């Protein structure tokens, strides 16, 4: 390959350019050092802070610096107040002890570190491959397993230093309260391997064998540390069978609680796995599994029969083939089993996080249809009912049919649901069966944005906390007490979206006069911060801090992944850790007691070493007259007297990212790296797009073209050097845009499609039809192809390919399960037939490219834009192509010194 020579040439030329640019003369004649430009070499070296936790007493913080050293991480332990700090490299896992005196961590070299907080004392224990921490009364116990032939587990009292060792241990666990240690032992008896289960109490070291045999797995303790359940897998008549065993503290041995032959287990079902004990300890939740079906005969006819009466496509059936599992529960004393889930049923996921677990809410689907076909396939029809986990008694909720969002209150007194037709919330009182419209008469919109539904509950189910589009409401599920707007309409008045800030709020019911902390996000300015309100009090919430930062904007799908961080609270005191960032400042951790003043903990600023970017919020008028927002990214060394090329990058809403810190990488699998492009002399503009159901791409055209006209007013924008780039949904829009306008000098479409008619009939990776995505999903056509064919025709770029004049770089993967490769081929072959300048980079894999393929695409996309937007020489893969026989031999990345620019296509004159 020519890559080595090309690389040396690149290094030499880069060195010369760097030497020339390192010192630049300013207007006053002085020289200053130019910062280096960002390139792909920094992607996998960029450091960041992650995983902050705080000790229970609020005195110490713990977090990791990723990629420091490169390819690993450094654990940082430091005092919230004062200067104490220690760092330990290559740490995989770390925890504070419950008494806030010690931190314990382990690294890949099997070394356990015990750090006495606030001191210089660090104890290292070699050859350790795992550890567990527990707290019992005034003692703090550590258990760790040595990576030795003896498989020794050591329990250690961190206060007294007392140690007790146990050999031949396969696994170990503490009870939640830290009083009990359970050991799974393995020993040899003649030629057989024997397993045993031992039950011990910490402190006295007493331990007793409660079971012996083989095939033990799935060991579960109850919350009180008095009961234990586990699975034993045995071979009976050469068939594997599972049984559930049970032990109660104070008894001599574990007993067999259930087998597949137990009453309540139907033929064709077997025991699956143990889930958890009930909160009162009287019941045990587990799963039942279907037995494997008959295997096809190797001599059978290998044909898939697709039928118009199939409730689920054959492709989905094959993808989802395998035994189903169903939730069940057994009464331990009576050994009575209740199957909670039947075919096509699932328990509401949040039920067992509530205060009660005696009643479960079941979502029943008519058959095995998939949600993408809910609007026409009767197999997707939903119904709901309540089932007692004590006796299996059912309570139908027929009036809930087709409601996708339903939730039970913590005490089980109410079912709350949103009626999408009436656009109101209702409560169902489980004891009386009374249904109430609990939001009737409230002058607000309950139509849900993102995940804004219920924020929590008051104690004893006295009130439910519900979000509207901006504010937070306290609503009585009985309808007797008037609804209280906790944020007093402040959100609606000021275009601020409020959200309850702490993870504890949904899990723990609120008391009257309790302090609530809200996150706040201003949709106009994109400022983010915190507000405070006392539950039950009237008036506006108190502003604590608000500014041009990003702290946490909950459930906003338009922010970069990992940019949100829910504040972490110390268990015993009101001390919190938050993460703060903006476009110019790397995310760092801070501590606070009041969300007004912040003490910086981490201090990581890799962007300061490079020519970074700035982010400006712009507002302009769309072609339809509506107001739009977008972000203009400029280089740190921006010079308003120069002309810059600009790339428009879009998806849906991008302006909410104004204060997000964009880490240089290719995390999305096919989008431009904004910090890299901007650092290297591009402007990047990310306009918001508002879509119209039935004509989605008109919104795209209105937004992007109006944005181009708007930016053209600025003297530093080179209007002849504007480009487009989009991935997936953004790529589909790119393909459409270049059929409608010729104002863009280059466009890159990654993992997109152009034929929405054939695409409508395609399949997604798991075998489901894409029709639902087109009709009521992201593509927003609002009707089937046969109901409104003109919508699909108008928006299909393939049908207007002859109008394209913009050079197009396409990228696709052969096994794309979202945007089929065959659809991309349609556009490329059309452009080739029409003699249009176009290239398609094809990689292996699914939707998007990563790793070395991502690096290669990043290089080629940069070369493509550099040629058309910066007039740099074109590489040979653009001017000459790469014959198939040279794949993997000649990468074509070398710049062409003889062919200035790609020439005309194959189309003969007159055709």
- Helix count? 13
What is the CATH topology classification name of the domain at 611-872? Rossmann fold
Query: Approximately what portion of the residues adopt beta-strand conformation?
Result: 35-45%
Largest sheet: 8 strands, mixed
Assembly level: single chain
Structural class comes to mainly beta
Gap between N and C termini, in Å? 38 Å
Rg estimate, integer Å: 31 Å
Helical content stands at 10-25%
Kindly provide the name of the CATH class of the domain at 611-872. Answer: Alpha Beta
What does this structure look like?
Strands 47-48-50-49-51-52-53-54 form an eight-stranded mixed β-sheet, sandwiched between helices. Strands 3-4-5-6 form a four-stranded antiparallel β-sheet, with no helix packed on it. It has a four-stranded antiparallel β-sheet with strand order 7-8-9-10, with no helix packed on it. By secondary structure, it is mostly beta strands. It is built from 13 helices and 54 strands. Among the domains are: 3-34; 611-872, 3-Layer(aba) Sandwich (Rossmann fold), CATH 3.40.50.1820. The protein is globular, with a radius of gyration of 31 Å. A hairpin with a 5-residue loop joins strand 29 (382-388) and strand 30. Helix 6 packs across helix 7 (729-740). Residues 699-871 form the Peptidase S9 prolyl oligopeptidase catalytic domain. This is Prolyl oligopeptidase family protein. One of its GO terms (molecular function) is serine-type endopeptidase activity. Pfam families: Peptidase_S9 (PF00326). Keywords: Hydrolase, Signal.
């Amino acid at each position: 390959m020519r890559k080595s020579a090309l690389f040396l040439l690149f290094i030499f030329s880069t060195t010369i350019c760097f030497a020339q640019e390192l010192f630049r003369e300013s207007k006053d004649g002085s020289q200053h050092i130019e910062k280096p430009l960002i390139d792909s070499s920094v992607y996998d070296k960029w450091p960041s802070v992650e995983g902050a936790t705080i000790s229970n007493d609020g005195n110490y913080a713990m977090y990791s610096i990723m990629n420091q050293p490169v390819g690993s991480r450094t654990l940082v332990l430091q005092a919230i107040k004062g200067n104490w700090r220690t760092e330990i490299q290559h740490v995989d896992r770390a925890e504070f002890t419950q008494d806030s005196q010690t931190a314990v961590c382990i690294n890949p070299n099997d070394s356990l570190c015990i750090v006495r907080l606030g001191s210089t004392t660090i104890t290292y224990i070699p050859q350790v491959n795992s550890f567990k921490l527990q707290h019992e009364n005034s003692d703090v116990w550590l258990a760790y397993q040595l990576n030795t032939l003896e498989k020794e587990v050591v329990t250690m009292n961190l206060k007294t230093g007392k140690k007790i060792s146990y050999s031949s241990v396969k696994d170990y666990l503490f009870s939640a309260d830290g009083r009990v240690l359970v050991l799974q032992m393995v020993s040899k008896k003649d030629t057989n391997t024997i397993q045993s289960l031992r039950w011990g109490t910490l402190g006295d070291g007493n331990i007793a064998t409660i079971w012996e045999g083989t095939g033990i797995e799935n060991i579960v303790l109850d919350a009180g540390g008095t009961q234990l359940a586990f699975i034993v897998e045995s071979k009976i008549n050469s068939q594997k069978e599972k049984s559930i065993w049970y032990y109660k503290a104070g008894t001599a041995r574990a007993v067999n609680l259930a087998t597949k032959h137990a009453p309540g287990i139907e033929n064709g079902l077997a025991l699956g796995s143990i889930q958890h004990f009930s909160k009162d300890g009287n019941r045990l939740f587990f799963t039942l599994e279907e037995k494997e079906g008959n295997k096809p005969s190797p001599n059978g006819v290998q044909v898939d029969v697709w039928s118009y009466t199939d409730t689920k496509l054959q492709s989905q059936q094959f993808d989802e083939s395998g035994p189903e599992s169903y939730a069940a529960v057994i009464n331990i004393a009576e050994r009575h089993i209740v199957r909670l889930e039947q075919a096509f049923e699932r328990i509401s996921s949040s039920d067992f996080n509530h205060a009660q677990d005696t009643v479960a809410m079941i979502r029943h689907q008519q058959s095995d249809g998939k949600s993408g076909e809910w609007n026409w396939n009767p197999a997707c029809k939903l119904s709901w009912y309540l089932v007692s986990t004590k006796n299996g008694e059912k309570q139908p909720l027929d009036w809930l049919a087709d409601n996708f969002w339903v939730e039970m209150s913590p005490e089980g007194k109410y079912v709350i649901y949103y009626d999408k037709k009436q656009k109101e919330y209702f409560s169902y009182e489980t004891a009386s069966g009374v249904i109430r419209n609990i939001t009737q008469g409230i002058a607000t919109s309950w139509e849900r944005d993102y995940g804004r539904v219920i924020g929590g509950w008051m104690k004893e189910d006295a009130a439910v906390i519900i979000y509207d589009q901006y504010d937070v409401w306290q609503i009585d599920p009985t309808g007797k007490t008037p609804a209280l707007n906790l944020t007093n309409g402040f959100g609606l008045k000021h275009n601020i979206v409020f959200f309850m800030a702490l993870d504890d709020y949904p899990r723990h019911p609120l008391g009257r006069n309790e302090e609530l902390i809200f996150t706040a996000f201003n949709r106009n300015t994109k400022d983010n911060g915190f507000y405070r309100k006392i539950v039950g009090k009237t008036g506006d919430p108190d502003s604590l801090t608000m500014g041009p930062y990003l702290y946490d904007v909950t459930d906003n799908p338009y922010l970069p992944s990992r940019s949100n961080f829910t504040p972490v609270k110390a268990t015993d005191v009101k001390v919190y850790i938050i993460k703060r960032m903006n476009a110019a400042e790397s995310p760092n951790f801070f501590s606070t007691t009041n969300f007004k003043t912040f003490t910086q903990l981490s201090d990581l600023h890799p962007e300061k070493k490079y020519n970074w970017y700035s982010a400006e919020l712009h507002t302009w008028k769309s072609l339809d007259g509506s107001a739009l927002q977008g972000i203009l990214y400029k280089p740190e060394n921006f010079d308003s007297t120069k002309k810059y090329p600009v790339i428009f990058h879009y998806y849906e809403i991008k302006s909410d990212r104004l204060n997000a810190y964009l880490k240089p990488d290719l995390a999305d699998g096919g989008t431009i790296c904004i910090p890299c492009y901007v650092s290297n002399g591009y402007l990047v503009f990310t306009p918001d797009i508002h879509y119209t159901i039935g004509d989605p791409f008109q919104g795209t055209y209105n937004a992007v073209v109006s944005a181009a006209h708007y930016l053209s007013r600025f003297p530093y924008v080179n209007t002849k050097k504007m480009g487009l780039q989009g991935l997936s949904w953004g790529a589909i829009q790119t393909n459409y845009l270049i059929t409608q306008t010729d104002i863009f000098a280059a466009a890159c479409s990654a993992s997109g499609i152009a034929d929405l008619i054939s695409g409508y009939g395609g399949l997604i990776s798991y075998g489901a039809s894409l029709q639902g995505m087109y009709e009521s999903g992201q593509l927003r056509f609002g009707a089937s192809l046969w109901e409104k064919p003109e919508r699909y025709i108008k928006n299909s770029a393939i049908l207007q390919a002859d109008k394209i004049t913009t050079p197009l770089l396409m990228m696709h993967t052969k096994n794309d399960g979202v945007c089929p490769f065959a659809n991309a081929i349609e556009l490329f072959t059309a452009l080739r037939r029409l003699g249009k300048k176009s290239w398609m980079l094809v990689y292996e894999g699914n939707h998007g490219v990563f790793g070395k393929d991502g690096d290669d695409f990043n290089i080629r996309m940069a070369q493509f834009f550099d040629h058309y937007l910066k007039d740099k020489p074109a590489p040979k893969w653009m001017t000459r192509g790469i014959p198939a026989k040279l794949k993997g031999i000649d990468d074509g990345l070398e710049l062409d010194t003889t062919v200035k620019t790609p020439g005309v296509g194959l189309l003969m004159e007159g055709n």
